[in-house]
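Sequence in, structure out. Go.
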Amino acid sequence: MRLIGWAVMLALVPGVTATLAQESPGVIPKSQQPAADAKPVPVRKVVHKLPAAPPKIAAPQTVAAKTSASEPAKDSSKIEIAPAPSAEIPATDRLRIQSALLWAGDYTGSIGGEDPMFSAIKNFQKRVKAKITGILTQGERTTLLAAAKYHEDEFGWTIAMDPATGVRMGLPMKLVPQAREAAHGTRWSSAHGEVQVETFRIKNPDLKLAAFFEQQKKDPSTRKIEFSTLRDDSFLLGGMQGLKKFSVRAYARDGEIRGFTILFDQMMETIVAPATAAMVSAFSPFPERSSLFADMRKSVEYGNGLIVSARGHIITDRRLANGCQVIVAAGLGDADRIADDKDSGLALLRVYGLRDLAPLALPTDAYKKGDVTLVGIPDPKEQSSAKTLTEIKARLADGNAIELRQPVPMAGFSGAAAVDAQGQFVGMMQMRNFVLASTEPAAPPVRLVPAATIRDFLAAHDVAATSQGNQADDAKAAVVRIICVRK
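Output:
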């Protein structure tokens, strides 16, 4: 039994950076895939009953494939550069198919400049000995959706962004349902800590990857290393940590080190092994496009609000203001939640006893597309408890989706102001969290609530908005940190 989980990890050692091929530069796609008739790793479940076996991915019944590949790809994980199958896949199916390809190890990234989804589907077709076209037939799509549903149902398998580190990863949420802050990222764990997944982000240009590698070998002191591989931009190591097995993967780029650690009891090995392989395949430390964010319902949560009246009215993200015993507007005092709107995702707060606050000017003309800057105060961990404004470059796309220019941590940033090139306010940003087995996987992970929507929301609650600002950067002056304290 001891060798089962380790075999999964060791099989990936020679191509550790290959697992990142979907979006990291200079990586080598994985060259081998499991045979179509290979038996799945046996899975046992402690909390709920599993079916006899996961659906076997074999060559489906042949259906005439669509041969048109002239439309550009709209894959959610990489900028389109080649004929792509995603144009042939409904938006509601795309993320689930991508998850199934990641779980199976087919999603290894761009091969020869191809769109990553196109390459992944060709890998899948090659593995199941089907005609290699890069475009799914109806039978192949059905097979992949069935596999995705199995993993969603049995493991709670979900692809999400960690807001604390900016990494994208696959999470077996039914194995690790509890989430909380860690020293340098986020820790997901089972109820009693039998399985733990912890992300980390070290931003220190002076810390070399080799030095961090040696540090991880010895910290904590109970670690006994059984295998390790160090490369120029990544490393893998694993072994025993006390009575638990562990594996650490780390990747370096632009003065940052990002990665994750898996820790689990030996008796959980046959359960954790298949999930571990899928997590390795899905992990992307520097993703070029965002996925929905992992939901972090913390006892103390940080976000942003925008002052919209001189009488102390503040708008913020409705999700942030939910379930709070106490809401604090930093520097202003306790705030009451007096209204919210599910459709817009807005909440209205008010701080009493204040006068002559400088309200945000809400323009009446709609902002279309183009470059925007997100202005807010991130989670205190990002600034060593400071409260200074941070700016994140982005672009407003179709459907009020906001596309980030860089894969940066977004913890504590929801509710920030979005301003145009002249510094004028255009709307408030919201972060979208994943919902297990969501029926709306195409929802943008970061979206804009336009100024016009905010005006209508305020008018419905008798708050007069102003359209005249004193200066171009009055949006920055209106930003205030919001702190939600829950049980």
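Check: Residues 1-84, 435-442 have pLDDT under 50 and may be disordered. The chain has eight helices and 21 strands.
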